[in-house]
Amino acid sequence: MAALIGRDLLGLADLTGEEVESLLKLATQLKLKQVKPQCNKVLGLLFSKASTRTRVSFTVAMYQLGGQVIDLNPNVTQVGRGEPTQDTARVLDRYLDILAIRTFAQQELETFANYAKIPVINALTDLEHPCQVLADLMTIQESFGCFHGLTLTYVGDGNNVANSLMLGCALVGMNVRIATPEGYEPNAGVVEIARKIARDKTEVILTNDPEAAVKGVNVLYTDVWASMGQEEEASDRLPIFQPYQINEQLLSLADPNAIVLHCLPAHRDEEITDAVMEGSQSRIWEQAENRMHAQKALLASILGAE
Predict the structure, then answer these.
(1) Fewer Cβ within 10 Å of end Cβ, the chain: N or C?
(2) Distance between CA atoms of residues 98 and 188, nearest Å
(3) Domain 2-128+291-303 annotated CATH 3.40.50.1370
(4) Residue 130 annotated as part of some ligand binding site
């Protein structure tokens, strides 16, 4: 993975399909303990949003590579007191080897990348969640062995996860359908990029009909109906999104061998029922574990671990 050394990952479109496939191959080798790359480097985590899986998986992955992690909580750094992004970026560039940022605006992430020479990884913004989708693709590959001929349907809010799923599926040659209520569609610019990547090889379909979107699909995916920063809208969204709940009835429309994914945290019996989460078709816990393996592969590749 020499091609990734020193590069940023600000969104999935920063990668080619071949690079995604290579990352997934390395992630699988790491999970099976077939390879043990090492790098004595320092990862900074600058997270302005709450995190469980992203924070812990990045930390454990870096430690297992032989590196160190510094948690740059905005509440205990000058970031929380309003230090300009470009100033923080130029200082951290002199201390760290790589930086993962979890924030609201994609522009803030891009500003960090512009002012820091070290690699910057998108650990979640309001626009994209690329590291999550690398783990999602790894989980799908484990379940089906390949991507060709598969279709993934995402139902719910057209948020950052939906945006990155469109790009990820297009990159590896999967069909993707995004079913949202009217007015909650994914970012139009990301849709355009995903369709350019897919060209005439695969489909990127947007619809407001969840049942039509789910018919015969191989992967059924959802996320919370109100993301971080949208908590005040949660109660108003409930009746709008209710037809998009992944329950046993909706799941029955998918392929009998379909799997169910959720990036977590989940509001059980809201966007997904408890029965489906705990059912035989759920791969949610494998998906969560794969965050660590996919991110370890990403870190090893960007840092040139040997």
Answers:
(1) C
(2) 31
(3) yes
(4) yes
